[in-house]
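Protein modeling request. Please complete all fields; requests missing the sequence field cannot be processed.
Requester role: graduate student
Desired output: 3D structure, token encoding
Chains: 1
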Amino acid sequence: MPYKKLRKPGANNLAIKALLALSLAFVPFSHGIADEISLAPQDALLSTMKYPYPVKTLELTAQQQPIQMAYMDVAPTTDANGKTVLLLHGKNFSGAYWQSTIENLTQQGYRVIAPDQIGFGKSSKPAGFQFTFQALADHTKALLDKLDIAEVSVAGHSMGGMLATRFALMYPDAVEKLVLVNPIGLEDWKRTTPYQPIDQAIAQEKQQTPEIVRRYMTAAYFDGKWKAVYNPLLTIQAGWTIGPDADLIAEIDARTSDMVFTQPVLYEFGDLKAPTLLIIGTHDRTAIGRNRAPESIRPQLGRYDRLGKLTAEVIPDAKLVELEGIGHVPQFEDIERYTAALNDFLAERLPEDSEVN
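Delivered output (357 residues):
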């Protein structure tokens, strides 16, 4: 499959604006990085965290209990083009971090739907919940049905890339185009890494601190180089570790990590029907469970500079855009190159459109 490398350095004004918008009224804490940043403790539903757009909720029933799915439904800010983009967040994020992407898309006439999946962001955190990508895809389809949206282009980042893939496989008629932004799950960690039982995972998650969260993001997401502009990315995950619901969040994090580890999608990439764009920051090194893998193979895990090319060869109608020098979060690290790739792909006419016109 064809791919191209973009090397033009881009300004990050929109990204910085989005990051700062995620910052709320911080209060100090003492967890090793207090001299650099301050964080507010966050409750399970992020009650005090302001999102960039109004948040609505969808009432659902799943696994014999009522749950609520939070989402943003943002109208175009210019002449509507009649198309909708669905944005699916990563595991350590929420719909709020899509702010600069939403601004970009709505300025071009797209309607944008950005949900918080169950277990994430402002959505319900049901204890004992069995998390599956199929269930999350089903919840997302229920949201689109409620909003009377029959077809979308889907963009998923990180874990959201795995969910976007599952959604496209389950509901191919609902997906016009698929965008995977540094998706995790491009390799099967079960083949290299011992399984961690959920009870052990919960105990480990209870040991999380803001400093541990930042160290993980630094090593996995940003090639070992932390910048002050990334500090607001700690708002949710680090805020939860010092919040009143830290034990519940530890369980949710363990269960969703188990979902990611045990439910690969890469074996089904060849079944995807929608035209697909892979936006890959080549400095990304994210790999779930790397710390449990044999030390000899750890450096080979999460090699996005290799995984992007391999994945593009497997997906039938794939285009690969590699962003050199960029890590796990292109929508913050280089908004110009990221949006250029996204915009060009979404604007491309499909073959059937060309035939009609």
